[in-house]
Each structure stands twice: as C-alpha cells, then as structure tokens.
Fold:
Amino acid sequence: MIGVESILRELEAALAEAQTPEQVELVRVRFLGRKGTITLLGKETDFRSLGPEERRTFGSQLNELKRQAEELIAAALADRRQRAQARAEAEARAKLDLTLPGKDRRLGALHPITLVQMEMEAIFEGMGFMVLTGPEVETEYYNFDALNIPPDHPARDMQDTFWLEGGLILRTHTSANQVRALERYGAPLRAIFPGRCFRYEAMDASHENTFYQLEGLVVDRDISVANLIAVMKALLGEVFQREVKVRLRPGFFPFVEPGFELDQQCPFCQGNGCSVCKHSGWIELIPCGLVHPKVLEAGGVDPHKFSGFAFGMGMTRLAMLKFGIPDIRLFNSGDLRFCEQFPVVL
Ligand code: FA5
Structure:
C-alpha cells in the first residue's frame, strides 16, 4: 500500500548527498518534519476509507518506515559528525607546523648578587639569624660615631664618603646597622644585614663605588673568637659545599677589639698559589672581630654582661669568587646578558 521501498531509496539518495550534519538535518526535516514526506503519509491518508485489516497493515508499515528512516538518518548524522571532526582536526594539523622553531619566551633572570644574597640569608636563617635592613642614606652618627669612629679619628679617612646635605651620607658600610639593631632589639641578638654601600673610590676591576656587603652581628653572654670562627667556617662550608680552611690575621677596625681579617684558603688552587690569590694561597675574605664595648654601650647593651662578634663581608667580592666573575664593573653594567648567565637554583 505504501511505497516503503521507494521512499527509503529516495531517503538514502538524499542522505548520500548530504555532506554535513546540517545537510542531514535538512533531509530529516524533508522526510520526518511536520510537513515531511513520511509524516504527511500518515496525515493525508483517509483512514475511514480503509477496512480494519488495511488500517492495521498501513499503520504497522508506516511505523516500520518511520523506524527505518530514523535509523538511517541517525547513522548518517553520526557519520557526518565524525567526518566533520576529522576534517577540523586535519585542518588544525595543517596549521600546526611542528618543524617551526619554538617561540623564545624570555624568562627574567636574577642578578648574581641577588642569588648570593638569597643563599646567604637561607644559610644564616638556618643558624637562627634575623635578616634586617637599614637605610642607605645614613647619619654620620650610625655610620661613624656610634662605631667608635669620632670625627677627628684617622679611621674616618679609611672610607671615602659621599656626603649629602644636612649631615647625611651614603653609608660606607653595613656596620652602620649594628647600633641601630642593638637599640631596637637589645641583647641577645643574632642578625645579618645585607645591603648596598657606597664609597668615593676610583673604580677598577675589583673596586666599585657602589657594592654590596653582608654584615653579621651576634651579641650574647660569653661570645668569643671561637664562636666567630665556627660561624664563619659553617658559612663558607655551605657556600663552597666543602670544608674550607680559614685563618685569622690581626686587622684594625675601631668598632671591634680584637679585630681580624679572615682569609680563606684559595678555592681555586687549594692553597698552592695561583693568579687569583696572587700566589699567596689565601684570599682575604671577611673582616671581623669582637664587638667593641663602646659599640655595645652605644646600643644600650651592658658590655660587662654581654659580648659579641661582628663581620662585614663583601658580598660583591664573594659573588665574584663564587661565579668566577673577573671584573666587578660588570655587576652594575646593566647588561642583561651578564645577568642571564647565572643559574637560578631556588
Ligand atoms: C668594612 O667595611 C667593615 N665595616 C667590615 C667589618 C665589619 C669589620 C664588622 C669588622 C667588623 P672594609 O672596608 O674592609 O671593612 O670592607 C669590607 C669588605 O667590603 C671588603 O673586604 C670588600 O670585600 C668589600 N669592599 C670594600 N670596599 C669595596 C669596593 N670599593 N668595592 C667592592 N667591594 C668593596
């Protein structure tokens, strides 16, 4: 009664032509939509003109036709969707050329002084030190007078100073933090003070007018030179990752008594003599000493109850040693290629 086969063939032909999911949808509407061929078959047939047997046959044929049509359309739709996706992927692949060189994303780099400072801070924090900072523009008092360097003292000439207006100076050393910290925290105290210092100096490969020091100050009961040496050896062992031989020579600084120059056995030649240590086998590394009683007093600490040690290492020079940097002027050159060479190990 219904030309099931011919309708299905017609549907198959239409689906074969439909290349995209959207076109399949148009075919579905054409056959199964509200005014679709198959839908209209049901609507436009005059059932009253059919006998009961014919009605049943017609009904089941129509249902079967719809079922098969839906199946064909669903299969075609799934197939076109899959093809569309494959096409999109192929297009993306064609656009993505894996042989092209990658984009060079510039990562920032840390300045070698920053790297050394971070390392130092971690080492000292491990030994229970606070990390403190103080002003770069300093008063004469904290930079000199409080450190037992009165105005007419010859030691004042040791550090050529940049003078600012109003009796202020650019600090010549991080020792300027010592009395500030004692005033603020009292004793006992364990602190380091990394920071920038300034001296009116002629520049050469090992002298800058702007450089970094790292000051250390320990004040407690019964502090002796033995404590100083132990801390210095622990520090250098961590920095150079092996046991380091050190020696103390007498050194003069008005704010320590006794004062020393701590030398490290040359890490480049193991003390045999090379150009770095000028064939002496030793590198002058850390000026240090026991805190002068007058400094403790200036900080409000009783020198009869407390003693201490202090050291002021040149962090810029340490970075030169650690990274084998031959000329101090590179640090402030502002040349990014310089900074980018140093590995960031955080
Ligand atoms: C001082 O500045 C003392 N305040 C150190 C100190 C602290 C002694 C605590 C005792 C107790 P000195 O002037 O030697 O000392 O400088 C210390 C270090 O700073 C030097 O060993 C050197 O590594 C570094 N330094 C000094 N001047 C310069 C410079 N012009 N360029 C680069 N580094 C410098």
Observations:
- Strands lie at 130-131, 137-139, 168-170, 189-198, 210-220, 246-250, 256-265, 282-291, 307-314.
- DSSP finds eleven helices and nine strands in the chain.
- The mean pLDDT is 91.
- The longest helix spans residues 52-95.
